[in-house]
Amino acid sequence: MGNAFRRSPWQVFGLVIGLLYGAFITVLVVGSLVTARLVTDLSATHSVVVVIGAVVVAGFALLPLLFGVDDTLDPREFALFGIPNRTLATGLLLAGLIGIPSLVLIVCSAATVVTWSQNPGTVVIALVAAVAVVLTCVLASRVTTAVAHAMLSTRRSREAGGVIGILLLVLIAPVLLLLVTVDWARDGLGALGGAAGWLAWTPLGAAWSAPGAAAQGEWGPALLQLLIALATLGLLWLAWVGLVGRVVATPEREARSKAYHGLGWFDRLPGGPTAAIAARSMTYWGRDARYWVSIVLVPVIPIFVIVVLILAGLPAHYVALVPLPLVCLFLGWSIHNDLAFDSTAIWLHLVSGTRGIADRAGRMFPPVVVGIPVLVVGSIATTIAFGDWAVLPSVAALSGAVLVIGLGLSSISSVLFPYPATKPGDSAFTQPQTSGASAATVQALSFFAILILASPVLVFLVLGLTVNAFWLAIAPVVAVLIGFGTLFLGLWLGGRVFDRRGPELMAFANRND
């Protein structure tokens, strides 16, 4: 902790900011807990403490597992000192108490003793529970940190963990929106009481609940909850000692090299430049984290939109029409900067004399392969959710039009307006520093251009649902005309631009290498 202040000035500045932030949170929480001692409604205070406390325990346990951490006190670092496993586990546990999160937790947990100081019995239970909370959180953090260090030792596993973490954060957004819509003045305490009722009997909230239950005169449940908390602490201690013993005696995990047989997609597709580029693109989509990190997030976006629309009061059967076109929109838009992902490897296309039309068509192969089953299955599922099979052709037409319009426009934008992208081999979560306003402009223009060209199909679908079913038959015709017209025009124009801008594309690749 002291050595952290001997680093660079900016690192010291960040540490000081973290300390100030921790101090602010501590003052705020301690003040609230001390003030809660004066509240006469013990049940309400109990519910709030249990719910927030359970979130704190879950945070200590899950954050290292989801995102990984740089474990400066990795037990493996002490392997050559000959320290007994139990002694080493105890020392590392005590060292885990030194840190901004742990110090904040210690002070705030001690403040709960004041909150539940109704009589000497509740003070004793609150003291034991506070110690159990601190040790449980630190032990849970140490255990999950050791597990994360072992599981996320390779870059691919770290990126997979990052994707899972992002997915969870995105999925939390609807929950937060639902919480915002709760009338807390009328239903807030009831909602918290219901959540606290079952959290109190779990390892997450048992230690936080025991003193509150005792303060309300429920000594039997209080002792049982304290027993659950102590049993959880004991199990975590045994797990930690076992992990220390295993980690100290086990070499650090290394990435295993895989043996590949055959040429993969190059064997499955016929010869020719278009097929070769299509095979290479499919290989990228399957192995390159830069692609699958963004593709994994495509189905998640509609979840957030659905929750927002439902909260806005839109009928559920109309909301069911939204997810599939959104997925197709992002799927078609996904290759709008595909050329930049090749970096300097684009020179292979140029020196081999590959025609632009072959490059443009080959890069469309992965989103088409993914989009066709999504379109078929999604159209049927959307129609079932809507409850009227008459909309099936229009829904499929709108979604398909959005997909092919996106592919057509992306074929032009990726070669006409490429912008710096993450380099091959770099982490998918890094972003080049040169992707400023120009990148944002290209992204916005290419995205909204798809919406503008697909808007006639959307208009006819809306007219068919609200005015006359006749327009539902017009929507597929318009979708075919606009969709495939844009697709073929994008292929032709994108190929022409690719053929003419070869030197500029190579200069762009070298400039951003």
What does this structure look like?
The chain is an all-alpha fold. The protein has helices at residues 9-36, 42-67, 85-95, 100-115, 120-151, 155-181, 184-199, 206-215, 219-249, 265-268, 273-287, 289-297, 301-311, 316-319, 323-333, 347-351, 356-363, 365-386, 392-416, 437-466, 470-500, 502-511. Helix 1 runs parallel beside helix 4 (100-115) and helix 2 (42-67) runs antiparallel to helix 8. The longest helix is centred in the first third of the chain and has 32 residues, at 120-151. The two termini are 38 Å apart.
List strands and helices in order, with pairings.
Layout: H1 9-36, H2 42-67, H3 85-95, H4 100-115, H5 120-151, H6 155-181, H7 184-199, H8 206-215, H9 219-249, H10 265-268, H11 273-287, H12 289-297, H13 301-311, H14 316-319, H15 323-333, H16 347-351, H17 356-363, H18 365-386, H19 392-416, H20 437-466, H21 470-500, H22 502-511
Helix pairs in contact: 1-4, 2-5, 2-7, 2-8, 3-9, 4-5, 5-8, 5-9, 6-12, 6-13, 8-9, 11-12, 11-17, 13-15, 15-18, 15-19, 17-21, 18-19, 19-20, 19-21, 20-21
